[in-house]
Design a protein that fits this description.
The structure is a single chain. The chain is of the alpha/beta class. It folds into two domains: 215 residues, Rossmann fold (3-Layer(aba) Sandwich), CATH 3.40.50.1000; 68 residues, DNA polymerase, domain 1 (Orthogonal Bundle), CATH 1.10.150. It is 37% helix and 10% strand. The protein is built from twelve helices and nine strands. The protein has a six-stranded parallel sheet, with helices on both faces. It has a three-stranded antiparallel sheet with strand order 3-2-9, with no helix packed on it. Helix 9 links the parallel strand 6 and strand 7. Helix 1 packs across helix 4. It is globular and about 60 Å long.
């Protein structure tokens, strides 16, 4: 039996957005299905196809979608129509169960790391929060424009600790910047947190001191490639589709997306099945703070 690993206390939590904190995935599916069924007399998205698309940038206009959908129109037309459907429906987004309570609690919680400062009074370090979403700034604005609940939820993330898919702090695609399952967006989020830690006179946060919250398989792999611990909170369709493969997902070893460039090098950084670096929970309401060395404020 593999020995239980010893981890440092978590000092930072980094959250995905879509399908984890807010119900975007269901809204996207509903919008796509209306176009498919009502306008083009095509079948609605299957659970298997949904699982393939979740977490990928521009997934509704990628090869996996079009190979399945076989639409009678050019991709460019579908891209315009689906973008307009999303624009109309994104303002309906709202928080998922447990999201606001968890993020609020973490914003007032402390790490048991003892890295807060040199005096006893300063020794308790507050948990730092960041958002790492492949959503563009324009779509992010649409998703938050109408719901006061969503705005309240995301207000716990300082604006400079929100890293979106078109964030200029990300390396350009031409120089290696990539979407998930590459670790780029999580590594940039860590850089923003370490800038704040340095300003507060604290030691830099290590990747192993970061906890990533993700709903998608590619997102779990991105967190693992970044050298971070991961909590996987899959959509019910995703959970069913990967039933029996959960341990493989948590290790980041599904290989659902092939990457070029540094892929071989980064896959060597991944752990092994049952190495303890990741866990699956059914919803954010089931998060165990003590498991990660997080002290909730009384």
């Amino acid at each position: 039996m593999r020995a239980a690993p010893r981890f440092p206390a978590v000092r930072a939590c980094i959250f995905d957005l879509d399908g984890l904190l807010i119900n975007t995935e269901d809204i996207i599916t509903a919008a796509i299905n209306r176009l498919l069924v009502e306008k083009y007399d095509r079948p609605p998205l299957t659970r298997s196809v949904r699982a393939q698309l979740m977490g990928l940038a521009n997934s509704s206009n990628g090869d996996a979608f079009h190979d399945w959908a076989r639409l009678p129109i050019p991709r460019e037309q579908w891209a315009r129509e689906s973008k307009e459907a999303f624009r109309r429906n994104f303002p309906q987004c709202g928080p998922l169960p447990g999201a606001e309570a968890l993020v609020s609690a973490l914003s007032r919680a402390f790490s048991a790391s003892g890295e807060g400062g040199n005096t006893e009074e300063d020794s308790k370090e507050m948990i730092k929060l960041a958002l790492a979403s492949g959503s563009t700034a324009q779509n992010y604005a649409l998703k938050t424009m109408s719901s006061t609940e969503t705005q309240k939820l995301l207000s716990f993330f300082p604006s400079d600790h929100r890293v979106l898919g078109d964030d200029p702090r990300l390396p350009s695609k031409g120089s290696g910047g990539r979407g998930k399952p590459a670790p780029d967006i999580y590594l940039v989020a860590l850089q923003t947190l370490n800038s704040a830690a340095e300003a507060a006179g604290q030691k830099p946060i290590l990747p192993s001191e970061c906890l990533v919250f993700e709903d998608s398989v590619v997102g779990v792999e991105a967190g693992r490639r970044a050298g971070m611990r991961v909590v996987w909170v899959p959509h019910p369709d995703m959970a069913i589709e990967y039933r029996g493969r959960e341990r493989e997902v948590l290790a980041g070893r599904t290989g659902v997306v092939k990457m070029g460039g540094r892929d071989d090098e980064e896959r060597r950084r991944l752990g092994e099945v049952d190495d303890g670096w990741a866990e699956m929970i059914p919803s954010l309401e089931h998060f165990d703070y003590a498991e990660y060395g997080i002290d909730r404020a009384s």
